[in-house]
Amino acid sequence: MKITVIGTGYVGLVSGVCFSEFGFDVVCVDNNVAKITALQRGDIPLYEPGLDKLLLKNIQAERLSFSTDAKESVRDADIVFIAVGTPSKSDGSADLSCVYQAVDELAASVNKDAVLVIKSTVPVGTTRAVKNFLLNRGVKLDVVFNPEFLKEGAAVEDFMHPDRVILGVESERAREILSHVYRPLYVFNIPIVFTSLETAELSKYASNAFLAMKITFINEIANLCECCGADVNEVALAMGLDKRIGDQFLQAGPGYGGSCFPKDTSALEDFAHKLGAAMPLVNETIRSNGDRRQRMVEKILQACDHDVKGKNISVLGVTFKADTDDMRDSPSIDIIEELIKRGARIKIYDPSFSKQAEKIFSDVVWSKNAYDNCSDADAVVIITDWSEFRALNLKELRHRVRNPLLIDLRSMYPVSEVKASGFAYCSVGRGFEKLES
């Protein structure tokens, strides 16, 4: 079976590589010539643990190839996956122009027996609209919606061992073909859920909106903890032990970012509004998460006696989450830009060495490791929860800094450990532990 994946962004590249690992012949297509040339060499344009090894393995096995020619690549394909971006427009709605551009390009040459699978996140009704779009051009295809649920930093594992696979189908033939594609997962007893196009589309938005609400909820509990003396980490532990709630996405911090939650909550709000369906929980999630970044700035300012002008602020981690180089809508952007506006001198270390971050932050100093980054710092600020920041030698760090102040926006350390190392400790969802005079 031959598979063509159109789009070599995060979802498309991970999907294409993993399908080739399943044993299928896969061609990944993109109109970015430089990106395709790099991929043909085995160079991956994104940071995702384990993906580089799988890519090289399957190129060498001649199961995986890359092309800029979409028309030729779909001519003999049994299945065509569309995995292009659907970013937010200025009004919050999803921009589907890349989806329709891809469909329009393949219409004239696609194998008429192929199944077309939309993997891009799209509003409810889009897959059916794509099917009609093709019919109007004289092309009758089975069109399926197959949402992705890949966490950046764990995408390969999520693809190979997903919680579930959702498939919106309308024909028995499409059901049989997609069953064959995902057959390698049957050995792990992964639930394969077949449903309608509309239900499958909404399941993606509903899942991401719920997780975004969960993050926002624990952040609001963190605010309450700071007022009443409770510890948000212990509250989250107590909540997460309840099987009805679970412990994932209950880590208080600077709010969600990335390529999915911001655009998907906005698109869901826009879609619901157009249908006249009120979604106050989603609306409040978006508003509260937007306010979260300014609250983090205020926390930093308060810890620094409300003045950062001329102070050396060492920032550890700027990507929107650990184990990725993705800077899309990262909370660090707003936080750092505001500190710079207030006169702070910023030094940054991020383990991903993100090229995206280097383009975003110009008036900063970059470091090669955490300890050099913290030399002569007036405050150390942890923004992203990279694992290596959980095991810092705080006593060594104490000798490097000018002023012993650790501002931990991920609450990664026990308060007693930080105090014992000689730092004042400002964290999220807990009290500010000042140094004893």
Assigned CATH class of the largest domain: Alpha Beta
Rounded mean pLDDT is 96
Tally of alpha and pi helices:
17
The main β sheet shows up as: 6 strands, parallel
CATH superfamily of the largest domain: NAD(P)-binding Rossmann-like Domain
Structural class: alpha/beta
Total number of domains:
2
Order of strands, widest sheet: 3-2-1-4-5-6
Termini separation comes to: 71 Å
Name the helicity range.
40-55%
Name of the CATH architecture of the largest domain? 3-Layer(aba) Sandwich
Query: Given the C-alpha coordinates, what overall shape results?
Result: globular
Percent strand: 5-15%
Overall number of strands: 14
pLDDT under 50 segments (min length 5)?
none
Radius of gyration over all CA atoms, rounded: 24 Å
Output the CATH topology of the largest domain: Rossmann fold
Describe the structure.
The protein is α/β, with parallel strands linked by helices and 437 residues long. The protein has two domains: 194 residues, 3-Layer(aba) Sandwich (Rossmann fold); 210 residues, 3-Layer(aba) Sandwich (Rossmann fold). It is built from 17 helices and 14 strands. The strands form three sheets. A six-stranded parallel sheet has the order 3-2-1-4-5-6, sandwiched between helices. Helix 1 crosses helix 3 and helix 12 packs across helix 13. It is globular and about 75 Å long. The mean pLDDT is 96.
